[in-house]
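Lab meeting, action items carried over

1. Structure of the two-component assembly. Owner: GW. Status: complete.
Input record:
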Amino acid sequence: DAGVIQSPRHEVTEMGQEVTLRCKPISGHDYLFWYRQTMMRGLELLIYFNNNVPIDDSGMPEDRFSAKMPNASFSTLKIQPSEPRDSAVYFCASSRESTGELFFGEGSRLTVL
Amino acid sequence: AQRVTQPEKLLSVFKGAPVELKCNYSYSGSPELFWYVQYSRQRLQLLLRHISRESIKGFTADLNKGETSFHLKKPFAQEEDSAMYYCALSSYSSASKIIFGSGTRLSIRP
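Predicted assembly:
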């Protein structure tokens, strides 16, 4: 297994543009998490899914952020419109139920100018 | 509410010196605690978890419920230990909602 796969690895965009980040979890994992990493705040949990259903989105900063998981092998995190303060590394991670060990993707580094 | 606090953003020690990365948590139930590590150009990965009671790469961490702490320790630091370390917490009864502290960058000086 190639592990959790994220795309794009790097994205540079201008303020106001729509950004879509993608994630393919490890096959057989029931949980999928989206985290945001910044120097100031470290790793913040944005949202997580269990069996494709969003369980807790309380970490999503505002309505500009949305996440979907249409099937067990794909999830997206969308920012519309993007702002410079959204610049960060966005990580996707997946896990089996009840093990607690997260497997992370390589991250998507977003820069909003 | 769940909360994980890592008070040090940066910790710099000499090779061969002892290392202690601090982690405090707040949680009303039974927590499960983890340490994750991110080496340069590698993915964030699990280092150890308290229920395993293992020593990984010479690191150990003991859960102290009285002090609500889960400090990571190593008696003799090595240069390859330089990395970003995150303490994390989840509910023992469920693997869901794993939250992380803000991280500590450990730098080992030769």
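2. GW to write a short summary for the group page. Key points so far: Chain A has a mean pLDDT of 93. The two ends of chain A are 35 Å apart (CA to CA).
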